[in-house]
Every structure is written in C-alpha cells, then in structure tokens.
Write a structure and sequence with these properties.
Layout: H1 6-18, H2 36-40, E1 50-55, E2 62-67, E3 72-76, E4 98-99, E5 102-103, E6 112-117, E7 120-130, E8 135-140, E9 145-151, E10 163-164, E11 170-174, H3 193-196, E12 199-206, E13 213-221, E14 225-231, E15 239-245, H4 255-258, E16 263-270, H5 271-279, E17 284-296, E18 301-314, E19 322-328, E20 331-336, E21 342-347, E22 352-357, H6 358-366, E23 370-374, E24 377-380, H7 382-385, E25 386-391, E26 397-402, E27 407-412, E28 417-422, E29 428-433, E30 438-442, E31 455-460, E32 477-482, E33 489-495, E34 503-507, E35 537-541, E36 544-552, E37 555-557, E38 560-565, E39 569-576, E40 585-589, E41 597-599, E42 604-609, E43 615-620, E44 633-639
Parallel strand pairs: 13-18, 36-39, 38-44
Antiparallel strand pairs: 1-2, 1-34, 2-3, 4-5, 6-7, 7-8, 8-9, 9-17, 10-11, 11-12, 12-13, 14-15, 15-16, 16-19, 17-18, 20-21, 21-22, 22-25, 23-24, 26-27, 27-28, 28-29, 30-31, 31-32, 32-33, 35-36, 36-37, 39-42, 40-41, 40-43, 43-44
The protein binds [4Cu:2S] cluster (CUK) and dinuclear copper ion.
[4Cu:2S] cluster (CUK) binds at residues 110-111, 159, 228, 332, 398-399, 439-440, 501-502.
Organism: Danxiaibacter flavus
Main location: other
InterPro entries: Cupredoxin (IPR008972), N2O_reductase_N (IPR011045), N2OR_C (IPR034205), Nitrous_oxide_Rdtase_Sec-dep (IPR026468), Nos_propeller (IPR041114), NosZ/Cyto_c_oxidase_sub2 (IPR051403), WD40/YVTN_repeat-like_dom_sf (IPR015943)
C-alpha cells in the first residue's frame, strides 16, 4: 500500500485537521499577480464577462457575482425567507417552503449545478441542494427566481446533489445520513444501525421543455453515507459516480469509528441499466411522503403537493447497477474529467489523490476483477480500477475542477492551497496558496465537457486577517486566480454571502440576453389581480377581507382603508401596474407579522394581516421608486369587532 498504516494515519490526520486553522500558506507576499488591478477591473457601466453562481451554505440562498470584478449582483432566495425579495412572506411564495414536515423556512445550500445539453452548460436553469431537510430547487435563469422545490424521500441530509446527467435527464441525489426508510417505523434503537438503516440515491427526472422535476426512481443501497457525486460524460455517459464514507456503518462517527477502514468507496452507478430494470418492471413501489412545490410566472402563485409513492430498485438484488471501488480515507470530492475517462476521488484524510479510469472499471467488471462483495454489492479491486495516484500533492484534498487542457486543479483544505496537476502523468505542475483553508473551487464550466480555463476561484472557509475586523465573525471569502498562463496568479479577494461551498461560473453571453425585464400585466392571471385602478376594490367574505390594490409611481389604490374590524383576516392583493424594467414597489404595514411584499412590475403579491389592536396603521412603499416615493403611503383604520 502506498499510504501509512491505519492507526498512524488516523492519528496524524486528526492532528492535521485540528491544526488546520493555524495553517497559513507561505510566500503570501509574492502570491498576487503584478497586474492584478487591471485584470480584475471592470469599468463602471461595463458588464462582467462571467456570472458566478455561489452557494450560500447555511444562509440557504444562492448568490450571483460578476467575474472578474467580484461585484455582488443578486442574492436569490431559495430555501430561506428573505425580506429583500418578500420571499416566504407573501401568500404566493409561502408554499414554496413547504415540506412533509410543514414549513421549513431555512436550509443549508451546498451545491450548484447549471443545466447542460450534451455535457455543456446551456444557461437555462440552475439546480441547488438543501442539505438539512433534503430538497432540490430549480432556479429559472430568465427570472433569477426559484421556480420549483422538490423534497427527497427516504433521505436525510442531501449532500451529494444536485449534480446532473449530461443532458439534464436527471438531477441526482444521495442521502448523506442513512436512516430507516420512510415506510418503516423509524423508532428503533440507534445502535441497530446496521440492521435498520439504509442509503438511497435518487434520480429526479427533469422535463426537457419546462424543467419540471419528479422523483423518477430511487436505488436502495447499504447504510453508508453518500458525500458527493458527478455524472459520467462522453464514454462514461450513462454512469454516475458517488463518493461514500462511513462504510463501517457506524452509528457514531467519532473518528475512531468512521475512519477505521483504510479505504472507503467510490460507487459507480450504471443508470442506463437501472432504467432498463425499471422498464422491465423490477422497481417496487413504496409509500413515502414528500413535498413538490412549483411557482407559476403567469398566475404568480405557487402550489404545494404532497406525493405518496416512489419506485425503488434494490442494488443488492440487481447486481449489475452499482459497483464499489475502494478509495483511500473518507473520500469527499468525486469529479469526472472533461473526457469522461478519469474519475478523481479525494480522500480528505489521505496524502495522495487516486485517479480511476473508466476503461479499467469497465474491464474490471467484464473480467470480474472483484475483491469480494460489500453488503451484496461487488467491490472492484482498487488496482484494477486505478489509473494512478498523484503522490504528495498536499494535505486534505477536497475538490477538483478541470481546465480542459489535460490538467486538474484540486483544493487542499489542510495545506490551504490550490494544486494543479496533469491528469495523464499525475505530475504536480503548480501550487498557489489560499487564504485560508479552501473548500470548493470553480473553473467556468470546470465540471463539464468544455471548461473555459481563464480563471479559477477558491471558496475559503476561514478569512482571519484578510479584511477589516468585524467582531467575532468575518465574512467567508472567495479568491480569483488567473489561470490563462502556466502559473496560477491571485488577482482578487471578495467576501461572500453565507458560507460558499460549490459554485459555478458561466459566460454571461449565455444568460444576459434572456433576462425577463418585467412581467406582462395582460398575462397576469393571479386570481386576485387588479389590472387597473378602476378595478381596485375591497371585498368582505365573512371575517376575511380581500383588498384588491394597485400600485404605480407614486401611489396605492385604495390608499384609505376603513371598515376593518378586530378578528378580521385581511389579504392585501397588491398588483404592480408598472410595465418597465426594474420598477418594483414594496408594501409594509406597521405591526404586520408576515413581513413585507416586494412586487415586480406586472406581478400580484399578497400580504396577510391579522390586526392585533384597534387604531390606525400606516402602510408604505419600501422600495425607492420615484421622486415621490416618500409620498407612496396610505392608512388602514381598525375598529372594534
Ligand atoms: S462540501 Cu463544502 S467544502 Cu458540502 Cu461540497 Cu466540500
Ligand atoms: Cu413605490 Cu417606492
């Protein structure tokens, strides 16, 4: 074996991980490119060349930056409520945060994946994952808004998603925490893990035209943890690769338990074969409960549906859909090069990077070069699948992206650096320090068939001394490197929203011309729309009062509202009559506990308000919209019941 003995490695890697925060790269002073300022400078009024979509971690949101400037363009609310967009406050957006547990107004968003056609980014949608209450969202890149959120059954933690197959046939997910399946009573002793806990990977079908998702099928696997994944491409199209840890199936992951094995696994999944088994009726329908929420840009409303069934294939019974490949020490990143031939596993606790060959994996399967089975699933011999190992690349390899010129760049958390290496001969070519402890990294198109190797961006976990101090917590940060030459050159630091994990960048040309500038009022089919001031009205139905309200620079209609009584539920259905780019209006009421609205031009949004006292409540527009913005206001009179 190329790596140290078990106990030694566990001891030394624990020490390395613990000391990570004090690990500073050397040669910090020389790292910045001499012409950095001109390379990152985008003149006022000029557009950036790339959009950079950055996961927001525990903020639950997705942020959008311009590159190379690092300018923050937008935060797109996905899994968390957001006052700036009224997301999760309006009656129209509330159902988007529904789950089988009820409303979950927060999540932990780790990964982004832009839709692809033939293995190249097509600029239509971006998928993101929720790592807490397992969900996948689809954001429409015409509106930069969340269009759909689907919950994943039989799962807990949804870390290894939302990576997609190379024609966006499926978004793929894998459970991070194995749990008892949904259809059995989960009230079992935790130490019955090996008997009762299962791992599931999910294939969520994506409609070619509308992008609508549905859970097509799941594959039941042993009770291990799936960490990350990536699709095959070109020759390996039709396959999907997952990194797995906790192959000990331990119910407590104190390091002694979870890292007992010298090697965990990469799992190779033949999903084309799985589709054949489905067609042949090998799937079993099992009862589950998951929410499917969609937003409609014509009615400007969302609907939430709870679904009750999913089709499951069993990896143990169908012996030729899943294969394990040993991978040293808690593999994290699982990345496939642009040719589809090389699969890079990154053992977080390993001091080397194993690179597997798709041809060799196929050969090993054909010739049964197995080292036995794991829970009924064939384990391919390590050497039989291995293309080779990058020796001594750095400490704590996490993630790899590709430059499309035969090279890979891997992030190293512990030694806090990016390392560029050649895929064929596995030689290290260059290294650049990160500030500090990089997690994910991104090259535009760097996980597709066609990377655009102009920049690499490092998303760092620790900021320390890079910016002015802001109390006990500092913003996480990104760093932009020019990789157009042989050497990686640092040109810019910029802070991020939340904690960035995976991020992607794409040429702005693919997206910028498709942007919706406003919603057409004549197409607005919200049930409570008021298309002009003449149709604005107040309608009472029992104790429910519907206010059909309009807004346009610079007034609301109606703006004096009387006849509201204690005990009423008041619904303000506010239609923005503007038909112009970038003229939203806001709507806030004194004392309203449902937050505020932000209404895009041509859109209707509804704020529910239950007055808590008799008296006068002013309301006003919260978004500065004209010289008379401050006059955009009104009063609501609340009388005793
Ligand atoms: S993970 Cu964050 S650094 Cu959740 Cu993709 Cu590796
Ligand atoms: Cu409308 Cu300010």
């Amino acid at each position: 074996m190329h790596y140290s003995t078990k106990s030694l490695l566990v001891a030394s890697s624990a020490a390395l991980l613990l000391s990570a925060t004090s690990c500073k790269p050397k040669n910090a002073a020389t790292a910045v490119s001499a012409d950095a300022a001109s390379k990152a400078y985008v003149a006022p009024g000029k557009y950036d060349e790339f959009y950079n979509f950055v996961s927001g971690g525990f903020s639950g949101q997705l942020s959008v930056y311009g590159l190379p400037s690092g300018r923050l363009l937008r935060v797109i609310p996905v899994f968390s409520v957001d006052p700036e967009k009224g997301w999760g406050y309006s009656e129209e957006t509330k159902p988007m945060l529904n789950t089988s547990h009820g409303t979950v107004p927060w999540d932990d968003l780790h990964h982004t994946e832009l839709s692809q056609t033939n293995g190249e980014i097509d600029g239509r949608w971006i998928f993101v994952n929720a790592n807490n209450t397992p969900r996948i969202a689809r954001v429409d890149l015409k509106t930069f808004r969340t269009s759909e959120i689907i919950e994943i059954p039989n799962s807990a933690g949804n870390h290894s998603s939302p990576f997609i197959t190379d024609n966006t046939e499926y978004v793929v997910a894998g459970t991070r925490f194995s749990v008892p399946p949904d259809d059995v009573n989960g009230d079992v002793p935790i130490n019955s893990y090996k008997k009762n806990f299962k791992g599931y990977i999910s294939f969520i079908g994506v409609d070619k035209t509308s992008g609508k998702m549905d859970v097509s099928f799941q594959i039941e696997c042993p009770g291990i943890n799936f960490d990350l994944s990536h699709s095959g491409k070109n020759k390996s199209s039709g396959w999907f690769f997952f990194s797995c840890y906790n192959t000990e199936q331990a119910n407590t992951l104190l390091e002694v338990n979870a890292s007992q094995r010298d090697k965990d696994f990469i799992m190779a999944v033949n999903w084309k074969k799985a589709e054949e088994y489905l067609k042949a009726g090998k799937g079993k329908k099992v009862p589950v409960k998951y929410a499917h929420n969609t937003y409609d840009d014509k009615t400007h409303t969302s609907s939430s549906e709870i679904k009750n069934e999913v089709t499951v294939l069993n990896a143990k019974e169908l012996k030729d859909i899943c294969y394990f490949i040993p991978c040293p020490k808690s593999p994290h990143g699982c990345d496939v090069d642009p040719t589809g031939e090389y699969i890079v596993g990154s053992g977080k606790l390993a001091a080397l990077i194993p690179v597997f060959s798709f041809d060799k994996i196929q050969n090993a399967i054909a010739n049964k070069q197995f080292a036995g089975e794991y829970d009924g699933i064939p384990v391919i011999k390590y050497e039989a699948a291995l293309h080779g190992e990058v020796q001594k690349p750095g400490l704590g390899p996490l993630h790899t992206e590709f430059d499309g010129k035969g090279n890979a760049i891997t992030s190293f958390f512990v030694s806090s650096e990016l390392v560029k290496w050649n895929i064929k001969d596995l030689k290290v070519l260059d290294r650049a320090p990160t500030y500090y402890s990089v997690g994910h990294l991104c090259i535009p198109g760097g996980d597709t068939k066609k990377p655009n190797a102009k920049y690499v961006i490092a998303y760092n976990k620790i900021t320390k001394d890079r910016y002015l101090p802001t109390g006990p917590e500092l913003a996480q940060s990104a760093q932009l490197y020019d990789i157009s030459g042989d050497k990686m050159q640092l040109i810019l630091d910029f802070p991020t929203i939340g904690e960035p994990h995976y991020a992607q960048a794409v040429s702005a040309d693919l997206i910028k011309n498709n942007s919706v500038k406003f919603f057409k009022l004549e197409e607005n089919s919200n049930p409570y729309v008021s298309k002009g001031e003449s149709t604005a009205k107040i309608v009472r139905e029992g104790n429910k009062v519907h206010v059909y309200m309009t807004c346009i620079r610079s007034h609301f209609t109606p703006d004096n509202i009387e006849g509201i009584k204690m005990g009423d539920e008041v619904y303000f259905h506010v239609t923005n009559l503007e038909q112009d780019w970038d003229i939203p209006h806001g709507f806030g009421i004194k004392g309203a506990n449902n937050g505020e609205l932000l209404i895009m031009p041509g859109e209707t949004q509804t704020l529910k308000w239950v007055p808590d006292r008799v008296g006068m409540s002013p309301f006003y527009c919260t978004d500065f919209c004209s010289a008379l913005h401050q006059e955009m206001q009104g009063y609501i009179r609340v009388s005793p019941a």
